[in-house]
Amino acid sequence: MDIKGITKALMTYFEANTMGSGAKMREVFHDVAHIYGHNPDGTLGDMDMTAFVKLVDSSVDPSKPQPPPMDEIVSVAFTGENTAVVCVKVRFMDVLYTDILSLIRIGGKWFIISKLYSGEPIV
Description:
This protein is of the alpha+beta class and 123 residues long. It contains 3 helices and 6 strands.
């Protein structure tokens, strides 16, 4: 199984998150990816890639110091030669998210095709 390729995709995801770069997210998310989750305020998050990229792009204020990343790969499970489910933890603004990412390999490259998240405020 291609753990090296999965790790490379996850490092891009972590970097895009830390930088607040929607363009970098587009490198690792498939164009038709969808993002669902449980927001810290209890509401349902439901975004397509356009909304997600806009959110990521607005998340980092370059004039302010950024908190340190809290990136962690919790688990990787291959569901086939070209599909995998990954659990990661990431800090996004003042929230620690647990993300379940579904990945698919197309043309030798791994893409996130869906994301399910749950966030807890960092205190």
